[in-house]
Write a structure and sequence with these properties.
Blueprint: H1 15-20, H2 24-27, E1 44-48, H3 64-77, E2 81-84, E3 88-89, E4 101-105, H4 112-125, E5 128-133, H5 143-150, E6 163-164, E7 187-191, E8 197-202, H6 217-232, E9 237-240, H7 282-294, E10 301-304, H8 311-314, E11 325-326, H9 329-332, H10 338-354, E12 360-362, H11 371-374, H12 397-411, E13 417-421, H13 442-446, H14 491-494, H15 501-515, E14 522-524, E15 532-537, E16 540-545, E17 551-552, E18 556-561, E19 569-570, E20 574-580
Helix pairs in contact: 3-4, 6-7
The protein binds 1-deoxynojirimycin.
1-deoxynojirimycin is lined by residues 94, 97, 134, 205, 241-242, 305, 366-367.
């Protein structure tokens, strides 16, 4: 593992100040992230991807009892909440984002009782629980869609989805030119009950994920019920899947996206949004959902997964009567450039605060190349496209990890709420060398292997270096193969090891909470070069060196460093938090 040195350095200060310099924590302002009112404004929320977190029954797919058994590790890490990706009944054609029953747990993951047990354990540990809701589309196996297939064109049941007649003499052409986000056409033609070629249905994603028609009041009522079902079960909120896609432009006009706009890109600067993303009509849906959440005690939250640009448009999703937070994908998509990071941080804080919302920060999730690899890529790789052995510009692992640690140190010092993706606290890289035959992402299949897709960030976690499947389960089964060198990333190899990525995250989360970094204001420090991210917040100086030469450090106590320091110099691709002696 990396030889980084996260704790305890004191840079050579003048002798007289060295002795009476108080420790960092003696000076820290009052804690700011205690549980209670509007906890989400500065929370650190950890994404659990249930298929790959921990597998209690040894079938190779993670499950709810597995998560429950490992929740203590997350409390120990120091996060405030967990967000669970879907565990609902599903044929798993898109890893659970194809829901066949929103009110039940898939047997693959357990039972509703297992969910209740997880919820209870989280409460005991002081962790909040957010669940995913997937309203843009259902599974094609959902009873609503099956009923629509069995019903006539023009029926009430068809009206729940976006069925249309085809173009061409015999309706043999799709109703418009839209393409699926996963590749190929966004329309599939059905065979009617009498055996004739029939209507087409829209699916922005896989053909197994038909889009619902959100202009249908019945659809709206169903989802209010779904929200209530989980709110009554005690969830603290929802991450809303494809929160920019539920309303389509009137008439479903043809649209050709710009090349490589990313897999879920929802806007191009100031020009009109694509006819299936970011339509104004989505906002009244969230206003109605907000009213539902506000009926419940305990500060429940809505978090938008909305791939919308620019940030000023995304802020519309978090106006005071809509959602509480939106993922900041502009931040995630920012490259390894200090000036770009400063620009996106400034812009995020400005636009979100203009509507009274906290900014959020995120570097990895289950849809993008893990940041321990992405930040060292030397070729463009839009989110969702993935990387594999034949990709251009593959990263140097050590460089990627160094940058990832520095990027995380910057992120966790920023004001607002941060999202972590399981495994990043271990420094996991993208699994690049997955055998083609093991790949499961629909993107891989729908592009004929042209895009690797997202499997590389979804490989089951290593917990114990010497156990079967590195402790993911006790049988050694794993729905995606784990790279053989992942024993070095296993949690037990890193626990208590000074300088490990796990200990770096634990330290950063503890300091963030104790010092109140999540609720402080940051001030940029101008006396550094353009290649340094430099700011002060809550009395802590944060420096990240994105250039190629070492940067002189000010005198002070180093609270956290992502690399071991050899004197008062910050090496390239490293970051520190320090309390300056003279400030
Ligand atoms: C966004 C989810 O994050 C992604 O994993 C999924 O494939 C699409 N929505 C479709 O549900």
């Amino acid at each position: 593992m990396s030889s980084a040195e996260p704790t305890g350095d004191t840079l050579d200060a003048p002798a007289d100040s060295e002795t009476d310099t108080p420790t960092a924590l003696d000076e820290a302002p009052a804690a700011s992230s205690e549980k209670g009112g509007e906890w989400w404004r500065s929370a650190v929320i950890y994404q659990v991807y249930p298929r790959s977190f921990a597998d209690s029954d040894g079938d190779g797919v993670g499950d709810l009892p597995g998560i429950t058994s490992r929740l203590g590790d997350l409390a120990d890490l120091g996060v405030d909440a967990v967000w669970l990706s879907p565990f609902y009944r599903s044929p798993q054609r898109d890893a659970g984002y194809d829901v066949a029953d929103y009110r039940d747990v898939d047997p693959l993951f357990g039972t509703l009782a297992d969910f209740d047990a997880l919820r209870a354990r989280a409460t005991d540990l002081g962790l909040r629980v957010i669940v995913d809701v997937v309203p843009n589309h259902t599974s094609s196996e959902h009873a609503w869609f099956q009923a629509a297939l069995a019903a006539e064109p023009g029926s009430v049941e068809r009206g729940h989805y976006l069925f249309r007649d085809g173009r061409g003499v015999d309706g043999e052409l799709p109703p418009n030119n839209w393409e699926s986000i996963f590749g190929g056409p966004a329309w599939t033609r059905i065979t009617e009950a009498d055996g004739t070629a029939g209507q087409w249905y829209l699916h922005l994603f896989d053909s197994s994920q038909p889009d619902l028609d959100w202009t249908d009041p019945w659809v709206r009522e169903q989802f209010v019920d779904v929200l209530r079902f989980w709110l009554d079960r005690g969830v603290d909120g929802f991450r809303v899947d494809v929160a920019h896609g539920m309303i389509k432009a009137e008439g479903l006009p043809d649209y050709t996206p710009p090349a490589d706009s990313g897999s879920m890109g929802g806007g191009q600067g100031d020009s009109a949004p694509p006819p299936y993303w970011g339509q104004d009509g989505v906002h009244e849906i969230y206003r109605s959902w907000r009213k539902v959440l506000d009926e419940y005690e305990g500060d429940r939250v809505l978090v938008a997964e909305a791939w919308v640009e620019p940030l000023s448009r995304l802020a519309e999703w978090v106006r005071p009567d809509e959602m509480h937070q939106a993922f900041n994908f502009s931040y995630l998509e920012t490259g390894w450039s200090a000036s770009e990071i400063r620009r996106v941080v400034d812009s995020s804080i400005e636009v979100f605060s203009s509507v009274g919302a906290p900014s959020t920060w995120v570097l990895s999730n289950h849809d993008v190349v893990r940041h321990a690899s992405r930040l060292a890529l030397t070729a463009e790789n839009p989110q969702g496209h993935g990387i594999g052995p034949r990709s251009a510009g593959l990263p140097i692992p050590e460089l990627g990890l160094a940058r990832a640690r520095a990027a995380t140190a910057v992120m966790l010092a920023l004001p607002g709420s941060a999202y972590l993706y399981q495994g990043e606290e271990l420094g996991l890289p993208e699994a690049i060398d997955l055998p083609d035959e093991s790949r499961q992402d629909p993107t891989w299949f729908r592009t004929g292997g042209e895009r690797y897709g997202r499997d590389g960030c979804r490989v089951p976690l290593p917990w114990e270096s010497a156990a079967p499947a590195f402790g993911f389960n006790s049988t050694g089964a794993s729905w995606l193969p784990q790279p053989s060198d992942w024993s070095t990333y296993a949690r037990d190899e890193q626990t208590g090891v000074t300088g490990s990525t796990l200990e770096l995250y634990r330290l950063a989360l503890r300091l963030r909470s104790e010092i109140g970094l999540g609720t402080s204001d940051l001030v940029w420090l101008d006396d550094y070069s353009d290649e340094v991210v430099a700011f002060r917040s809550a009395g802590v100086t944060v420096l990240a060196n994105l250039g190629e030469v070492a940067v002189e450090l000010p005198l002070g106590d180093v609270l956290l460093s992502t690399m071991s320091l050899d004197g008062p110099a910050l090496p390239p691709n490293a970051a520190v938090w320090l309390r300056e002696t003279d400030v």
